Structure formats: structure tokens, C-alpha cells
Amino acid sequence: MKHALPPLLLLAVCACGSKDKEKEKGPTSVVTEENVNKAKEAIKPPMPAAEAKQKIVAILGEPTATDGESLIWAGVNGNECRELKLMVQRGEAIGTTSGMAHKIVESEFKKCEAHAAGK
């Protein structure tokens, strides 16, 4: 006689396996702490904004949002949302700012999440 696992036990085993696979996937966005730091290191202001954008795009892809002339790259990875802003004035990249919002700080997370969605 074959022994079958009870349905609930089988479900528990399947659920545990899927959580482990989620952890293995890693970040879902390229806007990670490591890549944001690489992008910031690639920029040496003041420099032409087009050149600065090209360097960042090579690391983070296309910008997800804008703020006037400034460009924003944002991405959500689990409970964190990171963003990098290339500050631009009159066609010149004058600096960068970056930050991370945790889901616990709902207002900042939603703002970052909106930038990641292109809003």
C-alpha cells in the first residue's frame, strides 16, 4: 500500500520551498544599494548632463521619473525602495542624492514607489 502525505502537510512543504526560492531570487530591481553607489561614483560634477545620464543608464537603466530637469532612478526590492536623483541645472549635472525608504515609513516608501512606477 502506498502512503500519501496528508494534504495539509503537503501544502506546508510546498509553501516552505517557495519561500526559499523567493530568497534565492534576490533583488527584483537593479536599483540596489551597490548599483546606486556605483552610479554615484561614476559621476564627477560638474559635467554635461547627457554624459552623466549615459553613465548612470549603463548601470541602472533608463530613469523612472523626472523632477524638472533632474532625473530619478527608483526601484522597489521587497520592503525597501531606493532612489538616485541626478540633479541637473541648465544642462549640467551638478550632483546626486540618494536614499532608501523602508515600507515602515509609509509616506516616503509610497513616494519612492511612485517614482519607481514612473509617476
Main attributes?
119 residues, alpha+beta, 29% strand
Provide a descriptive summary of the structure in words.
The protein is an alpha+beta fold. It is built from four helices and five strands. The chain has helices spanning 7-25, 33-42, 49-60, 106-116, and strands at 47-48, 65-67, 70-77, 80-89, 92-102. It has a five-stranded antiparallel β-sheet with strand order 1-5-4-3-2, with helices on both faces. β4 (80-89) and β5 (92-102) form a beta hairpin. α2 (33-42) runs antiparallel to α3 (49-60). The chain is globular. The model is unreliable at 5-24 (pLDDT under 50).
Alpha-beta content class? alpha+beta
Low-pLDDT stretches are 5-24
- Cα gyration radius (Å): 20 Å
Largest sheet entry: 5 strands, antiparallel
In brief:
The chain has helices at residues 7-25, 33-42, 49-60, 106-116; strands at residues 47-48, 65-67, 70-77, 80-89, 92-102. The chain is α+β, with helices and mostly antiparallel strands.
Helices, strands, pairings?
Layout: H1 7-25, H2 33-42, E1 47-48, H3 49-60, E2 65-67, E3 70-77, E4 80-89, E5 92-102, H4 106-116
Antiparallel strand pairs: 1-5, 2-3, 3-4, 4-5
